[in-house]
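Lecture notes, part 5. Sequence design as translation. It can be helpful to think of inverse folding as translation between two languages: the language of shapes and the language of residues. The source text, in structure tokens, appears below.
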């Protein structure tokens, strides 16, 4: 009986233990499943489907490859919102980061009277010390601000040429900003005159390496006009400006409108400059031109604040008095008016005069009357100094009763004559008349300013100077486009040919090379690329080498003919740029060619303010051209 009771008790405890073990196991599985499911749902809800979740008892393990370190941390944080963060085991990995792209290398150089600054990011292959040494040499005694950073990446194509050219340009630009990037340079600068601007652009174009894109934004300030001069003539031939100056664009518009109402025809030109004697310049000129129009004919001359109104001979005295009186009462303060009504002269009476003529060949003759031997010697010496001793013939005579101003009028007339290519100066007691032809578009303005300054406000003068482009040493030069067109005309009638499969120019084409060289010698400094092309027969590499050799042969022939080729380059393109079908003999013949291409700057989009501009406290703003070609066919490859 005792044994049975003991067995019952033991059996009961055993069953209870077994049931407890089963319950505990079920509880663990339930916790694992709920934790795993909860974490997985939370991760899926945030788009982290890449994560793998596995529960082992109370621990939850996260595995998988996270896109970034930040995403991996976000996955851990998300799991921590479902289960205790201490129970989460991180077994995740992060996807390998892609190689970092090389940075954009660029630099900017700013130079002014305060010193020179350079800022930018340069490749490690660029010798930073050499760049700074050259910058310091350019700056001289002025301070240099060094803000260069270096990155250990290969230098991009065109970087070395762009940086070298930018430093060369900065040597010639005392006030400028140069922006440098691979294969491109943008230059913003200020010069003292339009002539200096043109000279600088020509020099920099010659110095630019072939293939480098260069953009110029070189400004010339408004000229200083001394004295501030304006002269309008209204006579039987029409109304014209001998000189016109304005202080603002609005003043120029006002003056030209008044001149058009007075009878001016044509486009009308007026120089905007500095040195105006009064802010009411435009008002005074407008009133004076209106008075001249009311008189019908005559001249109005401004020399700073001095105004000379000369009516035409024969103007009624009453009309003259009325118009002059009205003008005197209208003029703003500062301006002083001198008005003159010439007396009618008997046409049969020969007035005393001095005449100097300049022939197109440069020969000068001095004739007429002078006050004394001293003036005759001075006039002869001045003419020989200005025009050459062998070119002057003097046939003047000394007479009495000439005006006291005669020496000044004669010498001023000779000085005006020196501004012409050919023409004459006639000096009389009443006027100094200058007429002739010139190749200087500003000659009329220069002569008017000279006569107004030297003769004084009470003296009358007449200018009839014609600008002829053929006499202009600058305008007479052909433009790059005209050079290209002329070469095209030569090649249209005579081809450049080569010996078969050779870079040697055929003897029959040497005359064509002579004609092209003659044109290019007149064209001056233009950037030109001589291109060689072949058809598709033969191996591609062989065609490329042959086209390069032929282009170089053409360049060498030009050098042999004393053509300045510093701004020329030769490049072969092989068979890569056909202009016709290579399946026919005619097409292959057309593809075998030499082309002459002008190198023009490519268009660039405006860029925002740079770091250097922010430091300097300024913001500067900075053409598209297509490449026309002329070409010839070559012999077979």
């Amino acid at each position: 009986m005792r044994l049975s009771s003991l067995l019952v008790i033991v059996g009961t405890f055993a069953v209870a233990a077994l049931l407890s073990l089963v319950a505990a196991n079920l509880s663990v599985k339930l916790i694992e499943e709920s934790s795993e499911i909860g974490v997985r749902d939370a991760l899926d809800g945030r788009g982290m489907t890449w994560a793998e979740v596995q529960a082992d008892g109370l621990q939850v393990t996260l595995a998988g490859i996270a896109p970034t370190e930040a995403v991996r941390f976000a996955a851990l944080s998300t799991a921590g919102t479902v289960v205790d963060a201490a129970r989460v085991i991180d077994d995740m990995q992060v996807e390998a980061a892609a190689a970092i792209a090389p940075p954009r290398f660029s630099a900017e150089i700013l130079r002014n009277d305060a010193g020179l600054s350079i800022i930018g990011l340069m490749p490690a292959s660029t010798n930073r010390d050499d760049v700074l040494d050259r910058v310091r040499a350019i700056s001289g005694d002025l301070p240099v601000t060094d803000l260069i950073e270096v990155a250990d990446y290969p230098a991009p194509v065109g970087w070395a040429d762009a940086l070298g050219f930018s430093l060369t340009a900065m040597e010639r630009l005392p006030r400028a900003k140069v922006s440098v990037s691979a294969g491109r340079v943008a230059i913003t600068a200020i010069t003292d005159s339009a002539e200096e601007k043109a000279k600088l652009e020509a020099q920099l174009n010659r110095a630019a390496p072939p293939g480098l894109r260069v953009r110029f934004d070189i400004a010339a300030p408004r000229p200083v006009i001394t004295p501030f001069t304006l002269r309008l003539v209204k006579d039987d031939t029409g109304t014209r400006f001998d000189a016109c100056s304005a202080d603002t664009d609005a003043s120029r518009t006002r003056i030209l409108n008044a001149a058009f109402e007075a009878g001016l025809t044509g486009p009308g030109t007026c120089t905007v400059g500095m040195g105006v004697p009064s802010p009411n310049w435009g008002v005074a000129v407008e009133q004076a031109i209106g008075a001249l129009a009311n008189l019908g004919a005559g001249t109005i001359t401004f020399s700073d604040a001095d105004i000379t109104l000369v009516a035409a001979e024969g103007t009624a005295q009453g009309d003259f008095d009325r118009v002059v009186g009205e003008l005197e009462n209208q003029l703003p303060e500062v301006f002083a008016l001198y008005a003159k009504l010439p007396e009618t002269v008997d046409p049969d009476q020969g007035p005393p005069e001095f005449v100097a003529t300049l022939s197109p060949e440069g020969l000068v003759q001095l004739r007429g009357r002078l006050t004394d031997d001293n003036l005759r010697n001075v006039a002869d010496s001045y003419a020989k100094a200005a025009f050459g001793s062998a070119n002057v013939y003097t046939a003047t005579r000394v007479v009495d009763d000439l005006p006291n101003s005669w020496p000044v009028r004669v010498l001023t007339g000779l000085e005006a004559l020196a501004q012409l290519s050919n023409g004459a100066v006639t000096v009389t007691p009443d006027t100094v008349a200058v007429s002739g032809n010139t190749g200087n578009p500003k000659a009329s303005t220069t002569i008017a300013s000279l006569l107004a300054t030297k003769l004084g406000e009470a003296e009358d003068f007449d200018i009839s100077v014609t600008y002829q482009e053929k006499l202009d040493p600058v305008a007479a030069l052909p433009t790059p486009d005209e050079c290209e067109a002329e070469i095209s005309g030569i090649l249209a009638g005579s081809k450049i040919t080569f010996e078969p499969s050779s870079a040697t120019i055929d003897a029959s084409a040497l005359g064509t090379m002579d004609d092209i060289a003659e044109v290019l010698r007149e064209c001056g400094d233009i950037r030109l690329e001589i291109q060689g092309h072949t058809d598709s027969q033969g191996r591609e590499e062989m065609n490329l080498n042959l086209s390069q050799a032929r282009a170089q042969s053409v360049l060498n022939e030009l050098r042999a003919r004393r053509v300045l080729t510093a701004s020329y380059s030769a490049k072969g393109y092989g068979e890569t740029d056909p202009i016709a079908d290579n399946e026919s003999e005619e097409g292959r013949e057309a593809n075998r060619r030499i082309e002459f291409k002008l190198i023009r700057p490519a268009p660039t989009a405006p860029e925002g303010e740079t770091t250097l501009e922010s430091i300097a406290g300024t913001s500067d703003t900075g053409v598209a051209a297509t490449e026309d070609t002329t070409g010839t066919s070559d012999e077979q490859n």
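The translated text above is only one of many valid answers, since several sequences can fold into similar shapes. Residues 414 and 616 are 51 Å apart (CA to CA).
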